[in-house]
Every structure is written in structure tokens, then in C-alpha cells.
Design a protein that fits this description.
With 241 residues, the chain is an alpha/beta fold. It has two domains: 1-81 and 156-166 and 175-241, P-loop containing nucleotide triphosphate hydrolases (Rossmann fold, 3-Layer(aba) Sandwich), CATH 3.40.50; 92-154, Helicase, Ruva Protein, domain 3 (Orthogonal Bundle). 36% of the residues lie in helices and 26% in strands. The protein has nine helices and nine strands. It has helices at 48-55, 76-79, 97-105, 115-125, 139-150, 169-184, 196-202, 220-227, 230-240, and strands at 8-19, 22-33, 37-41, 63-68, 82-85, 157-161, 188-192, 205-210, 213-219. A six-stranded mixed beta sheet has the order 5-6-7-3-8-9, sandwiched between helices. A three-stranded antiparallel beta sheet has the order 2-1-4, with helices on one face.
Length: 241
Amino acid sequence: MNQSLTDTVLKLTNVSAYYGFTKAIESVSFELKKGQVVGLIGANGAGKTTSLKVLLGMLKPATGTISILGMSRCSSRLFKRIGFAPEDATPPEYLTAREYLVFLSKFRKGENINSVQQIEEFLTWFELDPDKLVRKYSKGMRRRLILAQAFLGKPDLIVLDEPLNGLDPMMILKLRDRLKLYQKQGTTILYSSHILTELEQTCSDVVIMHRGSVIHQDSVENLVKQFGSVEKAFSAKIGAA
């Protein structure tokens, strides 16, 4: 176990949030330590995406506290240290892949990092045509480009919302290896997905949400030992909720 796991990177404590008069999440609490890959799982409407929006400052919480990389709220300085791949994001269609990554690299941390070299590496690794306009990209290629920008600047925290949507099997395997590499380097990753078998392969821990609340958080190792798989653990916890 990584000794740096004593460091809390992200912590939500009793966080509730509304859309208008409708409560979306209630008293949500969970935390991530440095070097963890944590899967956020739950059925549609469980509150996963809302929780991500709250912790990233996109939705104001009604109650509770948030600590992210030692800060109580998101700021431009904090966002330099975070990589985020939203589920439904679409890059600007009038830019090429290279232009898009060059533009975003100016807002990421690591002035000592060779952004040009890193951008070229990601364009190659994600198998993206650097000079093709985004409007000519397929859905899968656009998804890869959104994922590529999340890794720019070697962020301390990477947040992925349904990252596998539109990816082919080989790219899913490559992404799994990339996440494991970043974990070894101390990056913390929060990974929201419906594909529980992939989370079992990738994550160290999972947070299970149901009807807007966290009902369980545990290591993948413990859940597999107790239930046989993350899928069976999820089914048992939801059934008992």
C-alpha cells in the first residue's frame, strides 16, 4: 500500500444539493486519499454526476463541507491541479485536436512540464489525428480527445465521468493501463461508471450511491472477498438499502 495514502485529497462531509426545489443528493460523505483510484457507482439518478458537479464547484451545495487538495472551494489556482473529463462534453468543432489541447494546456499546472511534448504524446497515445477538425471526428474520437485533455499537466486529481462511453475495447484496455500508471505515480482518480467489471479491474475502492446518498464505501479487495465481485456487492448493497 502506498504510504502516501495518509494524505486526504478529496473529502465531502454531509453534502446536500438541490436542483430548484428538488433534492438531488443528501448528506453525501466520502473521501479519497492520495494515490487511490475510487469508483463512484450507482443506478441512473443515484446522484453520481451531481456529486461531481458539487465537488468541482459547478453546483453550489445547500449544506455540508468540501475539501479538495486542501482547499474549501474550487478556484482557478485549484483547477490547474485537476483534470476533468465530463460525460457529455464536446470540444469546439472549429478547432483541430492539437489546437484544442494547446489552448487548454495554458491553464494547467506544471510550468516546468514540456506541454508541446506532452500534447504530441497524448495525440499519439489516444490515436488522434492532430490536424483534423473536431467537427470531422467520430463520437469515439471526440471522447478520446476529452479524455486526453483531462491528463494534461500531470494533475494531482483526475475526475472521470463515464469515461468509457464511445470507446472501443482496445482503447478501454489502454485507458486502464494509463490509470494504473498514474496511480503508481501518486495521482488520485475519481471514476464514475456503470461498467462495474471495469471498475473492479481498475479501482482500489468504490463508493456506492443510491437515491442521492452514499450507502457504502469499501476497498475492491474487501468487496470481492466478501461477495465474489463488485457487481454482486453492488446488487447486495442496493437490495439491502
